[in-house]
Amino acid sequence: MLELSDRSRWLVGAVASTAAVSLWLARRRQFSAAVQAPGEPLSTSFEAYLKQAPPEPVQYATTSFEAYLKQPPTAAAAAAAAAAPSSIADSLQAPPSAKPVTILFGTEYGFSKEVAERAGEALAAVDGGAAFWPQLLDMADLEGGLPSLASCQALLLVCSTQGDGVPPTEARPFCDWLASAAAPHLATTHFSVCALGDKSYQHFCRCGRTLDARLEALGGKRLAARADINREDFAAIDGWVESVCSALATLPLKTLAELGGTATLAAPAAEGGAAPAKRWSRSRPYMGRLVAVEGLCRLVSADDKNTVRVEVDLGDSGLQYLPGDALGIWPSNCPEAVDELLEVMGVDGKLQVQVPCWHYDDAVLPANATSMPLRDALARCYDLRQPKPELLHLLHARLAALHTQQQEQHAPLGTNSGNRGSDGGSAGLAKGRHGKPGRLGLHHVKDKDSASELSGGDAAAATQGELCAQGCIVDRLERLAALVADPEAAEAYLRPRHLVDVLADCGGLPLGLGAAELLCTLRQLQPRLYSISSSQLEHPQRVQATIALVRYDSLGAVRIGVCSTFVGERLEEGQQVPVYIHKNPDFRLPADPATPIIMVGPGTGLAPFRSFMQDRLLRAQEGGAPPCGPCLLYFGCRLRDQDYLYGQQLEEWAAQGKLTLFTAFSREQAEKVYVQDRLAQSGPQVWDLLEHAGAHFYVCGDAGSMAGAVERQLLAIIEQGQGQGREAAQAYLQRLSDSGRYQRDVWLS
């Protein structure tokens, strides 16, 4: 799992394989007998998953829901937090007249949490906060389930679908529990589900839909219709929130006073009655120590891209991983990018802003910190690349207000249609920062609360000539209006642009923006996942990843990968880096080491297979261990003497008979050769291992072209080996997938 190019949307994430979905559904059939709800048919039960043994930022007013999430908890709330590990609404004294509402969320990249918080804020705002008391719980912190769920009178559930149909990784244990016979009957629970997904995938919103069916099977009463949300459709999300709020207002729910003064749901206690121990995770990363960064490529020109081996010391964290898992790394934005943004905004980086409630447990911040310098927030909390469409709405509103103000002052405004053009398939604004416009003309105005507000200041006195010199207001207003009215055009405009580019398109205009307003239009900075390329048997306290350093051109500027350059170039050995282990139970070695494995991994797709090989060979050295079965590896790169990753180690394994190695160096001959070509050349051997030796087949790397080409070639090999036609070959491959013998870990780049 590698860093996506900045040209791709991070929310796409690592694309889950069809094998993961098939394995998930296969486990449903094996598990179905255990998931029957009382008095309900088996067909509505939740799918079960393979389980392995372990070896957006929103700024609100100070009286809002977001504000009280950051206030110091009371003693009672602290006790509740110990019982419910991830309860977010565990602070302040709850009004006795408020009716408790539980909001469960399961998330992979943070969007479900953002939607859950959006719903919580709306509920907390009803009747000035006196109507409802929302409690947010993360499924990731409920691995043992939530037996007290039956006491919940109102339940909202927000969950995304990972990849092509499976639950978020850290939500799987909770989903397993909900699917099992241990889940309670919910006869007195009213519920509604917000299912998040992406229509470009076959199994749109599958996880949320299945959770919805399971809650109904457990006897829950539907509070409001399930909402199936495509990507970031905030209009649909807000529609669901409104329907939920309206429905809750009609229910005779009990107040906190009627419930005895508390409605905090408790997670199962650990052995001995202690609160469940917090574990290192995505939201609570371990500060590992960078041990080594080793370049793996020979660079002969300025355009050559490097790949590095990164090694991190896990110290006393107790973190464990298996071959196939990924290393999650929380990056920091490039300091130069932060400086440039602050320059365009005209803001002092020391300005204090609120710590986003979704920011991970940050060892750099003081304990219980509620604010941090804007510079640090931009560096560690926010994605500075592709802002939300709300930014265009904000700029349009402020520009319209400025236009009205100028009209009221009788300042003549002309139109300038000579620069309309297009860029990235959409209507363009003024030339970007590469045309060197002035600042936004904004500066900080301190109020008694040190709020992060900016005003036009001296820039408001700019003359009409100065404004027209930087682009006509009317012209820009028309173009912004066109983008606001056309979501597809807005997305095309924003896709290649960073926040600084969009702001620079309005450079020099006194828009009176506030830092808090701008932060609202930014997405959360996401961690990056990199396939682990080492075995923990080699060094129990170390983990290695293989990372391609990302660089490309966009809008005439050189862009760099946020995380790849952070860990591969900016960090020094010995410095700390926030990390966690991302489990990948759908990409595993066979339990029997004698089972043959066939691995296809060009480029950095090799990473997990290095871990596979190390683990197999080290286990074979243990006393009484059976010998390893055949291991075939198909590796591809451009040139043998430039980007042959771990070439010496691979050649040594091959020379020792531990590995059968097939290489494809695409640029060493006139006609390019790829891994699928080498696979075709060894087709009979592959078929023999699949059909007669029970081999497992693995693919890791680019989902855009490589993975599809390899699958087509594999189908051709099966078809030729069977001699029964394409449909029979497809059925055979599906059986391999269902049984976990065909697994893919692929991503879009």
UniProtKB/TrEMBL annotation:
Annotated Polar residues bias: 405-420
Domain FAD-binding FR-type: 283-590
Originating organism: Chlorella vulgaris (Green alga)
GO molecular function: flavin adenine dinucleotide binding; FMN binding; oxidoreductase activity
Domain of life according to the entry: Eukaryota
Location of the region described as Disordered in the Swiss-Prot/TrEMBL record: 405-456
Name used for this protein in its record: Uncharacterized protein
Record's keyword annotation contains Secreted: no
SUPFAM superfamilies on file: Ferredoxin reductase-like, C-terminal NADP-linked domain, Flavoproteins, Riboflavin synthase domain-like
Domain Flavodoxin-like: 101-245
Annotated Basic residues bias: 431-443
Cofactor(s) the record lists: FMN; FAD
GO CC annotations on file: cytosol
Transmembrane intervals: none
InterPro entries: CysJ-like_FAD-binding, FAD-bd_FR_type, Flavdoxin-like, Flavodoxin/NO_synth, Flavoprot_Pyr_Nucl_cyt_Rdtase, Flavoprotein-like_sf, FNR_nucleotide-bd, NADPH_Cyt_P450_Rdtase_alpha
Keyword annotations from UniProtKB, A to Z: FAD, Flavoprotein, FMN, NADP, Oxidoreductase
